[in-house]
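Exercise 7b. Backbone tokens:
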């Protein structure tokens, strides 16, 4: 258990550092665009890498690396890759309604959660 926890923590630190690096690199390369280019880039790249990882880990018998690579590195790089994986898993199981509900609820409730957090913080600590 502690080994897995350490693997996730180490991977998360690596992934978060990579996410920051990509954002800095894109800002230097394109300048301020007003569009969240860094966020969308890491979400797309992370989702692609999650897809590759899931297949290769299963084919090569390397699923024991998932705590470090999938949860840690890619989770730190972008939590959107996990969201994408869960959505595709539901679709592949033929649970289209569940997948649609998961997508809509995840997006809408996450935005609502952020708005609620802003409202609470601004009201309490304003």
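Sequence design result:
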């Amino acid at each position: 258990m502690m080994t897995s926890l350490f693997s996730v923590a180490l991977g998360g630190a690596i992934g978060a550092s990579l996410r920051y690096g990509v954002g800095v690199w894109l800002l230097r390369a394109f300048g301020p665009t007003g569009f969240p280019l860094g966020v969308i880039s890491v979400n797309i790249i992370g989702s692609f890498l999650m897809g590759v990882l899931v297949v290769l880990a299963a084919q090569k018998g390397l699923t024991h690396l998932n705590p470090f690579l999938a949860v840690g590195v890619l989770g730190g790089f972008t939590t959107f890759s996990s969201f994408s994986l869960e959505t595709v898993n539901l679709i592949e199981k033929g649970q289209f309604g569940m997948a649609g509900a998961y997508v809509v609820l995840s997006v809408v409730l996450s935005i609502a959660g952020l708005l609620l957090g802003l409202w609470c913080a601004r009201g309490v600590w304003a």
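Instructor comment: The chain has a mean pLDDT of 92. Residues 94-126 form one domain.
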